[in-house]
Design goal:
This is Glycine/betaine ABC transporter ATP-binding protein. InterPro entries: AAA+_ATPase, ABC_osmolyte_uptake_ATP-bind, ABC_transporter-like_ATP-bd, ABC_transporter-like_CS, Gly-betaine_transp_ATP-bd, P-loop_NTPase. Helix content is 37%, strand content 21%. With 358 residues, the protein is of the alpha/beta class. The chain folds into 2 domains: 188 residues, Rossmann fold, CATH 3.40.50; 67 residues, CBS-domain. The C terminus is likely disordered. Bound molecules: adenosine-5'-triphosphate (ATP) and magnesium ion. Magnesium ion binds next to helix 3.
Length: 358
């Protein structure tokens, strides 16, 4: 599968002598060294790919370069060095007109504080992107109404924005992005201004929409729980650089450094982990270790705990063909709820049916 979006060694430097700054960064200089000269290295050597239908989350502390990175992905900011490819086309090589065309039709952006037009109806607000594209009124109202319905706002078309709650206004923003049929959605802290319950609701709604619409989404957040709920992959940024790019499980079990580790302290591990991530794979055999209930590698952690409570000793994890791929002793399960990273307690001598120990 070819990538829908590719960032290839992207740099963005603000301030003086930008090309020289990139050379210094390539030679290993960091942000602080450049800052002394009045130059800000906002994004340093960022490379990643996003596959069609994926939600790619970028997270990091304030100032780490997330918004700058996102604005380079749709050409709002020109990279100081590097390339952005969208469906194989180099956005950095497009002229202004072509770029505006791609931005209007293929890429939509949803911001943190979505600015709705106060004197336009909810329907007109949702249809705004289509109006920019020059879609005739009847057609754009039909598509906007459909997008509002998808976002749970059917019946609000003729209301004014100030008659809606903050969460509903945010959903109008999402509807505006969806109405254009853009393949790529760029979402910058889109849910951060919402209170926790509504925020969770919006996350659920996005995941539900994503199941049918299968957009390609780059989602920015500074909240790791949100990142883990939404992200098929998560890139963690620090001081302009991507310090880790992996799945939620990778980040949780194998944090690349202390900075990433400090993020994961407050994460609810039981929501992220699956049997495949916590099992001990050094124990393999042709069949489950006992005839009792088994788990599969995708069994969620909470369900695994329930199975563990029902079976003696350990849970056998079996693949689709019924082969044993790992085991989870109860002790190991508990270890993962604490702050164990990968490979905690090894599995001690199992019963006689075990074929191999790594
Ligand atoms: N137009 C600009 N001119 C100069 N410096 C800028 C500009 N835009 C961003 N920066 C700097 O680049 C760095 C990264 O900013 P950016 O907005 O990308 O961070 P962020 O990760 O999105 O932060 P936040 O979570 O606060 O939104 C910051 O040090 C910022 O001051
Ligand atoms: Mg930002």
């Amino acid at each position: 599968m070819s990538a829908r979006l590719e960032a290839d060694h992207l740099y963005k430097v603000f301030g003086r002598r930008q090309d020289q700054a990139v050379e210094r960064l390539r030679a290993g200089a960091d942000r602080e060294e450049l800052r002394a000269d009045g130059t800000t290295a906002a994004v340093i050597d960022a490379s990643f790919t996003v596959d069609p239908g994926q939600i790619f989350v970028v997270m990091g502390l304030s100032g780490s370069g997330k918004s700058t990175l996102l604005r380079m992905l749709n050409g709002l900011l020109e990279p100081t060095a590097g390339h952005v490819r969208f469906d194989g086309r180099d956005l950095t090589a497009l002229g202004d007109r072509e770029l505006r065309e791609v931005r209007a039709r293929k890429i939509s952006m949803v911001f943190q504080h979505f600015a709705l037009f106060p004197h336009r109806s909810v329907l007109d607000n949702a249809a705004y992107g289509l109006a920019v594209q020059g879609v005739p009124r009847a057609e754009r109202e039909k598509r906007a109404a459909r997008a509002l319905e998808l976002c749970g706002l059917a019946g609000w078309e003729t209301s004014w924005p100030d008659e809606l709650s903050g969460g509903m206004q945010q959903r109008v923003g999402l509807a505006r992005a969806l109405a254009t049929d853009a393949d790529l959605l760029l979402m910058d802290e889109s849910f951060s201004a919402l209170d926790p319950l509504i925020r969770r609701d919006m996350q659920d709604q996005l995941l539900t929409l994503q199941k049918t619409l299968k957009k390609t989404i780059v989602f920015i957040t500074h909240d790791l729980n949100e990142a883990m709920r939404l992200g098929d992959r998560i890139a963690v940024m620090r001081d302009g650089r991507i310090v880790q790019n992996g799945t939620a499980e990778d980040i949780l079990l194998r944090p690349a450094d202390d900075y990433v580790a400090s993020f994961i302290q407050d994460v609810d591990r039981s929501r992220v982990l699956t049997a495949g991530a916590v099992m001990d794979t050094s124990v393999t055999a042709d069949a489950p270790l006992c005839r009792c209930e088994t788990a599969s590698p995708t069994t969620p952690f909470a369900e695994l705990c329930a199975i563990s409570a029902r079976v003696p000793h350990r849970v056998s994890v079996v693949d689709g063909a019924g082969r044993l791929v790992g085991v989870v002793p109860r002790q190991r399960l508990l270890g993962f709820l604490g702050d164990e990273t990968a490979d905690p307690v090894p599995c001690d001598a199992p019963d006689g049916k075990v074929a191999a120990h790594a």
